[in-house]
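Hi P.,

Sorry for the delay on this. The queue was packed all week, but I finally got your sequence through. Input first:
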Amino acid sequence: MTKKEIGTDQLITQILKGIEEVKGNDINILDLREIENTVCSYFVICNGTSNTQVNAIVNSIQKTVSKELKDKPWHVEGSENAEWVLIDYVNVVVHVFQKHIREFYDIEGLWGDAKTTVIETNY
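Then the structure:
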């Protein structure tokens, strides 16, 4: 149990590093562990300003996690349109949006019971 938690913390750290490397905006972590019947433990949500930046964020996350943890996602979906890309690392699911798509779907609102951590960035 403890090893799994350390692994999840390391994974989230590397995901955040990947997002910040290409200046992803409005980064939030939703802790879903206290909510019944969830598909994973955490959502990491961020957005980019264009489909080019969304793809850059996705590629940066995958490259960073692969390099540092030798792990790759179980599933990636949405790369073709790059409006909402989902990267599934089983315990952690990353959502990379374009800003207007994020506002439309309002995942933070849908998962309002989750404990939310806002990540401050310096850019």
